[in-house]
Amino acid sequence: GFSPQIQFADQKQEFNKRPSKIGRRSLSRSISQSSTDSYSSAASYTDSSDDETSPRDKQQKNSKGSSDFCVKNIKQAEFGRREIEIAEQEMPALMALRKRAQGEKPLAGAKIVGCTHITAQTAVLMETLGALGAQCRWAACNIYSTLNEVAAALAESGFPVFAWKGESEDDFWWCIDRCVNVEGWQPNMILDDGGDLTHWIYKKYPNMFKKIKGIVEESVTGVHRLYQLSKAGKLCVPAMNVNDSVTKQKFDNLYCCRESILDGLKRTTDMMFGGKQVVVCGYGEVGKGCCAALKAMGSIVYVTEIDPICALQACMDGFRLVKLNEVIRQVDIVITCTGNKNVVTREHLDRMKNSCIVCNMGHSNTEIDVASLRTPELTWERVRSQVDHVIWPDGKRIVLLAEGRLLNLSCSTVPTFVLSITATTQALALIELYNAPEGRYKQDVYLLPKKMDEYVASLHLPTFDAHLTELTDEQAKYLGLNKNGPFKPNYYR
Q1: Looking at the predicted structure, is the pLDDT value of residue 315 above 60?
Q2: How far apart are CA 191 and CA 259, in angstroms?
Q3: Which residues pair with 189 in a beta bridge?
Q4: Nearest to 358 by CA among 268, 289, 294
């Protein structure tokens, strides 16, 4: 892999050569420190100063003397705190919820156990839940996505966090267990991303559900697992499906992909988009976002689609609707956004032109048949992190990004503002379930009420200095609406 250490080696000597006056000593030390650790560089999170001790075997304490956490290195807390402060600037709605909570604490008495990606953005959510009165314990839902310095900052400020980047499978479940299984502490709410935490409690501590008021789940996979439990009659508490709320779907899927597709492609390949021929498979929310960005850069965009409604939308937006077979020989980039499997087959890969770029923006790594490329006659060359050249016997090569996994999370970052919308929706879902009177929610999976979706959106409007128009009493009566919403029927998407 690429080590961020290398590029700063010369600088480090520079810093050390400079005569440092006594007063400046601490400053110069901190500059050289942060350069060698290189937290600002995109490759920062590999932390190449690893001592190979597992965090599980280290005794660490935060400045208050607590050791109820397990992170890579508590000394990185200061860096993490800075990243959290930057994220706060782009998460206005969560900060607005905190302001409101100075009076009443809607989550007072809530004991939330959480399992999500641990990034600066989630940290803002966790600290908001704390400000609203909740006690939290947290683990990571993905073995690679934790930012070690952010986990350290959270542990330093008193959150029991159990997570580090590059956990083993065994570590992963150990961390979840450390969050749940604590003497004298019993969770009464679950915030999950992917359903692993919920699954673990079902398997190991089913009695806990007697005290749990509800589950909030934000991912497609996790929601799917909840519906399965519900169908089997095994869901014993109400659950909130945040993934399918309008604010999550439209924003996280459409606008987020519109901004991150070019970023992921540029960072991995430095390619130019003007005049390139691109085929985007699937014209759902993700496909729409990708197409819009590529078209704006001057690419020639083709779309494949199975649904006549989405297909007609693609045509109306000015894209050529084709079958993959018709354009596979001429396109420069292939992007999958279907959530399906085997959309790009070995046969397609064989017919691609030299140096065609192949990547996936869909949920899982099933869309491109990567397994079919692992055969003796093809040569794989790792060009750099997340970029492979696959070379055919005649010398033709294709450029495969992130081994067919999700391009934007693997190769670039996701805009904080979008995550603010998702995180606010999660916070409101927790408040709603926690405060709901006995019997309002049965043991089933619920969508967030439209009123909440509208409230989340309204909290983000001040960022744009946007001014909403209010209905007059007469207008409201004419439309048959309450002046304060909800403005759309529940089925509106």
Answers
A1: yes
A2: 27
A3: 112, 214
A4: 268
Question: Which residues are part of a known binding site?
Answer: 119, 193, 218, 248, 252, 284-289, 305, 408
List strands edge to edge, sheet with 239-241.
161-162, 135-140, 111-116, 189-192, 214-217, 239-241, 445-447
Binding-site residue set for NAD(+) = 284-289, 305, 408
Contact (CB, 8 A) for 336 and 364: no
CB 269 within 8 A of CB 275: no
Cβ(336)–Cβ(343) below 8 Å: yes
Residues 214-235: what's their mean pLDDT?
91
Q: Which residues contact 367 (CB under 8 A, 6 or more apart)?
A: 281, 336, 338, 339, 340, 341, 342, 343, 344, 360, 404
Structure tokens at 20: 């440092």
| CA within 13 Å, CB half, 139 | 25
Point out the least confidently predicted range of 294-303, 324-333, 444-453.
444-453
Tally Cβ neighbours within 10 Å of residue 272. 12
> What's the pTM?
0.76
**Known binding-site residue numbers for substrate:** 119, 193, 218, 248, 252
HEC string of 445-477 equals EEECCHHHHHHHHHHHHHHHCCCCCCCCHHHHH
Give all domains of the chain, ordered by start, each with its CATH number. Answer: 58-244+415-459 (3.40.50.1480), 254-404 (3.40.50.720)
